[in-house]
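Intended use. Records such as the Aminoglycoside phosphotransferase family protein entry shown here are meant for training and evaluating sequence-to-structure methods. They are not intended to support clinical decisions.
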Amino acid sequence: MKEPLSRAELDGVVAEAVGVRLDAVRELTEGTCNAAYALTLADGRELVLKVAPPPGTPVLSYERDLLATEAMCLRRFAGRVPVPELVAAGTAAGRGYVLTSLLPGASWQSQSAAVGPDQHRVLRRQVGRHVAAMHAVTGDGRFGYPAGPLAATTWAG
């Protein structure tokens, strides 16, 4: 389902979103839905760009407007949960995108085999605390999924 962008397309998204030249790109290969890139800008900032599949790509209902939901959640979680800073969100070439700060570290998936059972327990407790903090964040009065066709103004839809 991932559909990569060309370097020229990446340059265009970054120029439009932040007005700074793109110096380096590294594709992030984990994940299944959105194309993702670690970017280094000419001003030294390191960012992550996620780009939705092109229009017309078959996706599950909840995957439509998924990056709009992610942007909304990043705004709501800021200062409450350790999430990247949302730098920009929008549409380029008909595809939704989010541009965030790059958080240091490695994914759980890439490090899982190197972590022992005791450390897994510690990490799971930390994840649990962060999930609890996310669940304490209130919404804007809508029901269902926060963005896209599955959002509703009442529980009855």
